[in-house]
Amino acid sequence: MTAQPTGRYVTTSVAGESFEAFVPRPLPPRLSTRQLATLTEPLREAEAALARLDLAGEMIPSLDWFIYAFVRKEALLSSEIEGTRATLVDVLAWEQTDQAGDSRIEDIEEVTNYVAAINYAFEQIHSPKGAPISIRLFNDCHRILMQGVRGANKQPGETRRSQNWVGGSRPGNAVFVPPPPERVADLLRDLERYIYAEDDLAPLLRIALVHVQFETIHPYLDGNGRLGRMLIALLLDHWRLLKSPLLYLSLYLKQNQAAYYRWLSAIRIEDDWIGWLRFFLDGVSEIADDAAHTARGLYARVNKDRKTLLATSGTTVTAIQLFEQLPEHPVITMPLVTRLLTTSKPTAGKAIELLIAAGILAEVGERKRNRLYRYHNYLQLLE
Ligand SMILES: Nc1ncnc2c1ncn2[C@@H]1O[C@H](COP(=O)(O)OP(=O)(O)OP(=O)(O)O)[C@@H](O)[C@H]1O
Ligand SMILES: [Mg+2]
Hints:
Elements: E1 3-4, E2 7-14, E3 17-24, H1 33-37, H2 40-59, H3 63-80, H4 88-97, H5 105-126, H6 135-145, H7 181-196, H8 203-217, H9 224-238, H10 250-255, H11 257-270, H12 273-311, H13 317-325, E4 331-333, H14 334-340, H15 345-357, E5 361-364, E6 372-375, H16 376-382
Antiparallel strand pairs: 1-2, 2-3, 4-6, 5-6
Bound molecules: adenosine-5'-triphosphate (ATP) and magnesium ion (MG).
Adenosine-5'-triphosphate (ATP) binds near residues 216, 223 and 261.
């Protein structure tokens, strides 16, 4: 057993091979005033970027649009880290028509599971009778995330009962061996307690600590990365750093994956929390400014297209009504339009044609049946 400031190694064995598993100490780590001082500036920047994002959100009347789009984009990116390949249009089309386009159904399923899990989590924490951020909520989200073929053998909704590892073909040659399964319950309880405990540390820093601790515990057989990233979004809400769920770090973590993994290991091996915290804060600044930019861009796009549509000769009320639905339904089919607008097929068809003529809708592929149309310019800003 080797003593370690951020935790300790315990010797365990699986299939006759013995190895060292890492058991982290409960949060928070001891950080000196001098260490924390190095974070003052990046922290101030990240908080300012969040405030700007909040403002951008407030200036937009139909915030639900953006949340709708951002959550799907996040789901796609977060699932991509693991190698899932699906396009945004295919995911949106699947939600409307159950047709997968060129993406594989298992890939799309993984993304829609992610959307379902994060929506479920936000509903729960916002509803008076719902579950708060807790082990129970993690388990429920895990169950939703693992729905379907790929997750079936990953013990959906349950923390693991066996030893897992990260990198390598067995614990003996792994990059990282998380705590033995019998320690997981206690470690998660400590983490839950920390989320509700008083701490003078800035909430943004606490989120970064919680994320790492969750990854280090690695409580599930799979999906630890996705749940840990979801947890960041939930905590931003919990600690009221954002009024609306508009910040998702998956893009940053994906683009900087090597550094991200390096920091996760550096905490364990070198007790270097500051490097990670700084990396996390930089990500928040970058992504918050990006998100504010995208939200503004989407808003401007819709306004511009609305003007174009109103100026198009022969515009109908139905066409305008359909247009107003597009931000939350950027991929549509005829049956969807007749349902959304409770109108007849010919009227819906006319509205779709008008929007195509105005350069707003474009057909996706060349299907004979169940034709798909996308709000092209809008989706381009998201892709
Ligand atoms: N060296 C490491 N130390 C601690 N945690 C790590 C390390 N390398 C990766 N991780 C964490 O493990 C996660 C992957 O775990 P898992 O496969 O259970 O999650 P996932 O959601 O299926 O995958 P992914 O995060 O790749 O999408 C990574 O996202 C990262 O957070
Ligand atoms: Mg995985």
